[in-house]
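Q: Lipoprotein, please. Structure only.
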Amino acid sequence: MKRKWLVSVMMLGIVTTTACSGQQPAAAPVKEVKHVVMDAVKKEQATTVSELSGTLAPLEEAMVSFEVGGRIVELNRNEGDTVKAGDVLAKVNAQDYSLQVASSSAAVQQSAANLSKVNNGAREQEITQARLLVEKATIGYQKMQDDFKRIEQLYKEKAISKSDFDSAQNGLTLSQKDLENAQQAYSLVTQGARAEDKDLSRATYNQAVIAQEVAASSLAKTQLRSPINGTIISKLSSTGSLVGSGTPVYQVGNIDTLKVVLPVPDREISMWKEGEVVSLDLYGQKREGKVTKIFPATNQSTGTIGVEVQIANAKHDWYAGQVVKATKTIQGQVGIYAPVEAVISRGNNDAHVFINQDGKAVKTSVEIGQITNDKLEIKSGLKEGDQLIVKGVDRLFDGDPIETAGGTQP
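A: Structure for Lipoprotein:
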């Protein structure tokens, strides 16, 4: 009896379970509506604001130094003084250089006198004297010839000794030599110096003149002159200092106009043109500068190309060495651009966005290009008029219901 009761209870449980299983299943959970911000896709022109910094420098500058060594005896210009090209800035002791000029001048006078003597030849008195000596030697030689003929006849007649004959013969030879010497001396006086002697005298004179010019040039270099119009930027020595050739004494620069070389990335260099105007900022002071030169080569260490900009500085209230910021607006291509935060990219061209279709977020693959001012170029995947979700994409899945922030259904 007890066993039948247990079986009945079990059958009742089975029936009850079967009856319950015939009820409707529970409804699926409703997806959460995500709040997003959207914007209509449209074409626009990319605009890049390029901000570059550079250091101001004089339009032109020079480190001015003596070309000769010595002790500085005058150094009267100071920082900030305005100078013109050719103005004397400093002097070194010139005594040794003055003595060199005096010595070279004396050498020029001496060589000039010698050259004049060689070119002009002997004086009239010297020629007359030489001619008289020839006449005297001729008469003497003729007399010795007559005497020798008489003595020779006597010697043949054995009227005189051999010794007397030899003595007469030697006298004739000597008188002949005297005549020849007198004739040669007369020839030298009348014909003048040989061509090579004249050339030597002329070369000696020219060398003396060159030495004089070198000495005069060295003397002039004892005065240090400004090579350009400008302003004394730095005074690098003091009176009494011993300086050598090439030792900088002053730094002179033209600061009426300043220049700055901007490091432009090479990918942007095509947007820069000579003659265009660039906005410059120095501690809130703004001025316009003009592009005057684009350098011909890329800096291999930085990947930039130098662009020189000149700035008027008539009041000298901007200073060399200050850092200025240059701003230039660069117009890019017309296309579709999306905010960076609207694009989810995993690299390797795997990028997507979400667009609104009938109140749902639809995942859409896109091809992206360059980034410009926090916007990515969308090469493909979007078209004008699409409702692009620009905020809240990080919480979205494909097909999520969405509404705009504030509760309005899109």
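A: Brief note, in case it's useful. The radius of gyration is 55 Å.
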